Amino acid sequence: MKDKIRDILSRLGKLPVAVDSLADDSDLYTAGLSSFASVQLMLGLEDGFDIEFPDNLLNRRSFASIDAIAATVEQIIATRKVA
Amino acid sequence: MNVMAEVRAESLVSRAQRVAAVAAQHAEAVDREGRFPREAVDAMIAERLLGIQVPAVHGGEGATFSEIAELCSILSQACASSSMIFAMHHIKLSSLVEHGLESAWLTAFMQRVASEQLLLGSATTEGGIGGNLRNSICAIEIENGVCRLEKDATVISYGDYADAILITSRAHKDAAPSDQVMTVFLKDQYTLERTHVWDTLGMRGTCSDGFLFKGEAPAEQVFPKPFAEIAAQSMLAASHLLWSGVWYGIAADAVIKSQNFIRAAARKSPGQTPPGAIHLANIANQLQMVKSNIVAGLKTYEDAKRDEEKLSSMAFAVAMNNIKICSSEMILPIINGAMLICGIMGYKNGTPFSLGRNLRDAHSAQLMISNDRILGNTSSMLLVHRQDTSLLG
User: Fold this and answer.
1) Which of A31, A56, A60 is closest, CB to CB, to B176?
2) How sure is the predictor about B2, in pLDDT bands with cuts at 50, 70 and 90?
3) Cα B309 to Cα B380: distance, rounded to the nearest angstrom
4) CB B334 within 8 A of CB B251
5) Which residues of A touch B (CB under 8 A)?
6) Which residues pair with B5 in a beta bridge?
């Protein structure tokens, strides 16, 4: 999953640094993720994982690092399986 | 009870009304000469209004955004420049109150703001960033416990008159443009070299000149929290809500002037409804919409306060953006309607119905953080955020 997230991040995150140079727990905002790019990233993740982010997860923390994104995506997929 | 406690115990509103009376006396001169409203700001200090937002345990009065927005409205009915200075000071103070408690220095400084009634200025704008305050070019240098910063600040409102300036920059020399921090510099820790003069259509008393800022201070004066979070969780909301309080007051003053005009006409010709009366009904309706919108925004903020998750949510950011768009756009047709009612008496300067200053001051509203930028930001969020369609939610 994290490879896929990295792929989407490198296409849509518009980061000034290479995504490969970031650790899974690196702060993406510190790395230069802008608010506009973060929306593009969210759209890319929704498309890539065939999910929709509920409003309560649309906040900075959910997208603060690759780890945080993975946890957010997993949470949505898990909720869907239960439902 | 000592004198200080007596002054504090009186209602905030009556204290602001006394400041407004002083501001009104000098408003025309402040506007004409484009000078700092010294008398009004001195009156704010005498009434101890600069520290009211600071929690009581730190020497303030714990005033809420709603209370402060009400004071902004009272002040701007007398002098919008004075009111805007008051609003901008409290926007900066909100960063200290909401995010300063994790730092001993910032907490002590907040106490000083309350006890010494210090006026806080802001330097978030920079030449070359294209108006986006969430980007910086300049970077703070921190070395051996000392921070140094040089910034081409194209606007620092009342920069010459502030006791301290809260200034944004990149967090270090290799930081991305959006990786920002905010730092407090005290007046004796910086120099300002004027680069632009504030000679504008309206809001002339804010004296928002441009300066080359050079500062050096102990590194503990840097906010520990990233500026991105300060902006999202309190500063943008404080700006949109308190500015809206200022703008509402400008429009409310125009409505009162036109109502006075209509009432005088009605008294002169009993039995006849003055022709402009229908415009008055219309602008009173529009003013009520602006008011409802701001009150709803203040409630949204007070409900979300202290819930970091809610404050960082898109729903909250969209709501605050909408408040700003609505109040900044709606006040213009209101003042225009007032002008249609008062006619030449409103168009002329120096009559009890003069609307020139209201109109000119009001035009700043759409520009301070350009509405186009805000709408662009909202439209980008609406790609993922779904609008809450409930009426009360």
Assistant:
1) A31
2) low
3) 20
4) yes
5) 15-17, 29-36, 39, 42-43, 46, 53, 55-56, 58-61
6) none
Quote the number of domains for chain A: 1
Q: Are the beta carbons of B309 and A53 separated by less than 8 Å?
A: no
Contact A33 B178 (CB under 8 A): yes
Structure tokens at B391: 């009426």
Beta-carbon neighbour count of residue A1 at 10 Å?
13
**Cβ of B271: how many Cβ atoms within 10 Å?**
5
Question: Tell me, what amino acid is at A65?
Answer: S
Beta carbons of A55 and B229 less than 8 Å apart: no
B25-62 tens-digit pLDDT: 999 999 999 999 999 999 999 999 999 999 999 999 99
Q: What angle do CA A9, A10, A11 make, to 5 degrees?
A: 90
Structural domain of A25: 2-82
Q: Where are the beta strands (DSSP E) in chain B?
A: 120-123, 141-143, 146-153, 164-170, 180-186, 190-196, 210-218
- For B321, counting Cβ atoms within 10 Å of its Cβ (0-12 exposed, 13-18 middle, 19+ buried), the class is buried
3-state class percentages of chain A: helix first, strand second, coil last, to nearest 5 = 65, 0, 35
Contact A55 B386 (CB under 8 A): yes
Least-confidence region, from A43-57, B79-93, B175-189, B288-302: A43-57
Domains and CATH numbers, chain B: 3-118 (1.10.540.10), 122-221 (2.40.110.10), 227-381 (1.20.140.10)
Residue pLDDT, tens place only, B144-203: 999 999 999 999 999 999 999 999 999 999 999 999 999 999 999 999 999 999 999 999
Q: Chain B 173-202, CB below 8 Å of chain A: which residues?
A: 175-179
- pLDDT of residue B4 exceeding 80: no
Res. B230: pLDDT tops 90: yes
**CATH for A59:** 1.10.1200.10
Measured in angstroms, the CA of A19 and the nearest CA of chain B are apart by 14
User: Is A58 close to B315, i.e. CB distance below 8 A?
Assistant: yes
